[in-house]
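Q: Hi! First time asking for a complex rather than a single chain. Here are the components, and I think there are four in total. Is that enough to go on?
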Amino acid sequence: MAQETRKQEIIRVAAELFKNKGYSAVTMRDLASAIDIKAASLYNHINSKQDILKVIIISIAEDFTSGMQSIIDSKKSSISKLRDVIALHVRLASNNINGMAALNNDWMHLEDQLDFYLKLRSDYENNFMEIIKSGIETKEIKNCNPEVIMFSILTTLRSLYLWIPKKEALNANELSQNLNQVLIDGITNK
Amino acid sequence: MAQETRKQEIIRVAAELFKNKGYSAVTMRDLASAIDIKAASLYNHINSKQDILKVIIISIAEDFTSGMQSIIDSKKSSISKLRDVIALHVRLASNNINGMAALNNDWMHLEDQLDFYLKLRSDYENNFMEIIKSGIETKEIKNCNPEVIMFSILTTLRSLYLWIPKKEALNANELSQNLNQVLIDGITNK
DNA sequence: GTCTATATTTTGATAGAC
DNA sequence: GTCTATCAAAATATAGAC
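A: Yes, that's all I need. Here is the structure of the assembled complex.
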């Protein structure tokens, strides 16, 4: 891994501050201070505060999109696909805890890219729902309200960023297994 | 129900704006404009922006505290207590969707009341965890990692405010039942 | 690439007329 | 109880020296 550039450092530290206080409450002076430079110097590396948010959120959203596409394209059972979705969330959340917080909490502060983000999120949820409905049709999944099932699983997965840092004891595999047991095995016919 | 006072209106509309953009991104001018008065007029009814946030969050946090206390004091089984916790979240979220959003997303912007809020939240989670651990001891609940169980259930319940508005078709009882099925029956021994 | 200095806007909040 | 006028501080961002 190459040496971190100043721009990468700015984005990394910004994501950390955004996680703690939210995009709107973090000032460019806060960010500069955390890096130990002056606020004006930030603008030699980034165009605007908004650009920082855009880079953080859109890159993760596209990771989710491509990850979901791979799962959809696979010819696995619905339950296997759901397990892969869980693993995808665990992996992406583990890779970028702070960015995930911004994705979850600050997407509404996107300006030019807001519609693009909303489209990606909507597509993702539609794919998720199709997996659940297919699983219900093939009787892999209990015939519960599919929206309640998706809501329950997806909100849990979207909150992983809050929880992973506290559970260093659990590695990603263990966490995926535990979530599988609670989220999936609970809803499958036995 | 008595006529809404101007102060109550300010708090109600503020919660709605906070839900959409977050506390920090909502200005007193935004709030005044939504009520169709001037920003300076707000201060005839409230002391500060911070006071509005405090009223919104602390009142709900205390509702959760007293609701949990009633559940703990009851001599029901662990599973029955968990079902009551779900009903508590559904009820409080339904009663105050926008306030619940502020509780979830803007608690870190509390100033004087931050420590008090954190204490209430910590106590709540400890009580929740005790219910789960008791249920595992009595074998009502599967012997999964209790923290994963609590995390999964609690994050789902805490996100209800996002979801209830979209599901007007489901009333509170139906929603509780569906959540019970997905969250509880999935983790019980059969 | 970082700095000082500064422009411009916006912010929470107050004073005082009505 | 609401308004206009205003303050003081803080915000994002730019210009230009080094």
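A: The radius of gyration of chain A is 19 Å. Let me know if you'd like any chain examined more closely.
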